[in-house]
Amino acid sequence: MAKAMPLAEFEGQVMSLEELKAVDIFEDVKPDAIEKYPGTVRKRLFRAGDVICQQGEGGTTAFYIVEGTCRIFIRRPDEMAGKGRGLVARIGRALGQQKLPSTRKHKAEAVVPIDASVDLTYGRLATTLEAGNVFGEMSCLNLAPRSATVVAETDCILLEILRNMYEVLQRSKTFKGRMDAIYRERVLDNHLKNVWLFDGLPQGVIDDLKRVGELLSYEAGKQIFAEGDAADGMYLIRRGQVRVSKKFPGGERNLAYLTRGDCVGEIALLHDTPRSATCTAADHPILGDPGRKRRPAQVELVKIRTEDFKRVIAEYPEVRSRLEILAERRLLEQAEARVLITPTVYSREVEDLGLIQGQNLMLINLEKCTRCDQCAQACMKAHDDGISRLIREGPRLDKYLVPASCRMCLDPVCMIGCPVGSIRKAKDLNIVIEDWCVGCGVCSKQCPYNSIQMHTLEEFGRHVSEEARRVAETGEVVEVTDRAVVCDQCSGLPQGPACVYACPHDAAMRVNAVEFLSGYLTSPGATTLPSFVRAPVEAQPVDEGT
């Protein structure tokens, strides 16, 4: 088993000014900038097999590989423990209980973004980092949890860098040029191929797009483009997150948060129309210490101008018709999954409870409920991990309990900050947590309604070896991790949510908050609920990544 290195302390040999200037990436960094932050760069020596950092753990530093190679990988829960099932799951199978898959199927080449100068693919969640590469950048800059495990593949010399010095490095032309070149060579190819618009294009087209792509940086909070602007191309997200929003009567609503590998404005490449939404560079939250001050993070993008794209595909006329078909299909899919936006002012009670966020809100009528527990039991039996997604705790509004279950929010803030992009919004608007979740808990902390729960693999009903227990107790590399779970509205069951289907008293229900509360106000005796000023309006589909 690999040997674990202490991760909580900033260890190693402090690098002097002379030693740093001898490292190529510090060549054009001014001496006074280095001397301003003494002790912020240390040389670390790792033997082959040593663990440098682990997925899901906290981290505040970045690593630059001076010598040697490192293995970087994500371990899925089913790879980290035995595949035995719990008693409830076995009984359910014996009784013919239908199971829901834990995750969706993915193409092997689908990109899994990580905190490194490379990406992984779903079919191969591991790769090798050689000298000259960086990993841990987002942990360093945004206090994000480690997105992957890194182990020394050979004896290695690394520079471990704290944030203030890493920000100095980012202003270095040498360092930035090195990182841009690595991105174009090792990552941009995969990002382009995973854009739906470019899927299946000849490698020659991809190479041309890589060549003409413009690398841009935006400080968090800066607008990339505004709704109504003339479209001048599309943007690929290289690093950071982008918030997509749209104006409606009564105010602006957030539609999505996009991250590394996603794109915005792609349909503008084929249809000369104004921007249908506003895109803004967004920052990761600071967890656990909201009073802590730091500079806004940089969001890095790749811009492909409309004229460059059209010039490139002009050389491949047979591709044009296929792209037109894909664009029409994309618009139809968006129309099917359009979101109800409610541009209205609600009472303080509804706003405080966040009910209006609920596109599919779980309610329990307490006048009908007999506390039989059938809803929670059905939820548990409907999932092959044996874990209920329904917690019958939460606020009350009139005769209804609002339990801690996913609301399918209009503004899914749970998606902000995931270091590996494992939490996504599906086509049917459900929130899905993929099986490369590293158990860091960011999504659970971000959800205001306690709808995302963290569970250990033992709770998932999977066997955990005695060796893993011993290793966990001694502080070495652990083979057990947490996993986030969220209600998926039982989208794989024909009868819909198992909790609602199993309720013998029709007390459990799933409703659209706007439609239900508006309708409830028109019924007799419903005066205790807040009134609405305006009726909801239906949003038009947008092409900015939603």
Task: Sum up the structure in keywords.
546 residues; alpha+beta; Jelly Rolls; globular; disordered N terminus
Please provide a written account of the structure.
The protein has 546 residues and is an alpha+beta fold. The chain folds into 3 domains: 13-74 and 114-171, Jelly Rolls; 187-339, Jelly Rolls (Sandwich), CATH 2.60.120.10; 348-530, no CATH class. 25% of the residues lie in helices and 22% in strands. Strand 15 and strand 16 (251-258) form a beta hairpin. Helix 7 packs antiparallel against helix 8 and helix 8 runs antiparallel to helix 9 (306-313).
Give the secondary structure arrangement, pairings included.
Blueprint: E1 13-14, H1 17-21, H2 31-35, E2 41-46, E3 51-53, E4 61-67, E5 70-73, H3 77-80, H4 87-94, E6 111-112, E7 120-121, E8 126-129, E9 134-135, H5 137-142, E10 149-152, E11 156-162, H6 163-170, H7 173-193, H8 203-212, E12 214-219, E13 223-225, E14 233-239, E15 241-248, E16 251-258, E17 263-264, E18 278-282, E19 298-305, H9 306-313, H10 317-336, E20 340-341, H11 348-353, E21 361-365, H12 374-382, E22 396-397, E23 400-401, E24 423-425, E25 431-433, H13 442-446, E26 453-456, H14 466-474, E27 482-485, H15 498-502, E28 508-511, H16 513-521, E29 537-538
Helix pairs in contact: 7-8, 8-9
